[in-house]
Structures are given as C-alpha cells and as structure tokens.
Amino acid sequence: MLKLEANYSTIEKIVLKSTEGFSQFSLSKEDENLKVKLKHGSFPFSLSVKVKVVSTQKTPDDPIILKVGVPSFLMEMLKSRIEREGVEVHGNEIHIYPKKIARFLEDLIVSRLEFEDDKVVFHLEEV
Questions:
Q1: Beta carbons within 8 Å of 64's beta carbon, 6+ residues apart
Q2: How far apart are CA 22 and CA 14, in angstroms?
C-alpha cells in the first residue's frame, strides 16, 4: 500500500488557479467530513458545505464518490465550474475517476480516503 498526502493549502491553490469564478476556496476537517468554504462570482454570498466520502474504488474503473451537503439544484448551478476530465457531478455527488486524472493511477485504486486536520490522505493499492 502507498499513501499519497495532499495538504489543504496545496489543494486550495490548485482549485483557485484551475477553476473559473471562485474567489474564495478553503478546506478544513469537521468530524469525519471535509468542510469546504467557497465563494463564486455568480453568488453574492459564500457557501460552507460538508463533503462526505460515500465510496472509494474497488477497481480502477470505479469512481470515488463524494456526497456534498447542498441541494442538487445548487450543484447543478456549479456543475460547469466543477466538471473536468475525470470529475463528474451527479445530483449532489461528485464522482472522481483517478485514472482519468493522472496516468500513474491506471493500475492503482484509492482504497481509502482520510481527512486529517491539515491534509487529505489517499491510500493507494495496486490491482
């Protein structure tokens, strides 16, 4: 097993640089969930939502499924800003396909995803 860690600050910088319209984006841990605060130019307010891991991968073709604590209609409004190669929005769920995002993940699965105080830990296993 291999662990891949990503600091919240690094993820925040990547999201702000690669996602059009977000003027604020921050991550923190709340209970076993990830708390996301964001502000998008199309909204006059900022959002604070909880993200929960619904499932991880059993095969490289499976998505990691995250449930976002907002109504589906709001996710639909943000869908075009969130979706990209390997990331899809389905209702209030985000489906992430790691092998479509990074070629080195083609023969690996994310068997577990943990939110720590300052980082996300991806547990990778060879298939």
A1: 53, 55, 56, 57, 95, 96, 97, 98, 110, 113
A2: 11
pTM over 0.90: no
* pLDDT, tens only, 85-114: 999 999 999 999 999 999 989 999 999 999
Q: How far is the C-alpha of 58 from the C-alpha of 55, rounded, in Å?
A: 9
| Dist. CA 17–CA 44, nearest whole Å | 21
Distances (CA, A) of 102 to 26, 27, 47, 86, 96: 23, 22, 29, 9, 11
Q: Contact, 113 vs 122, CB < 8 A?
A: yes
CB 57 within 8 A of CB 64: yes
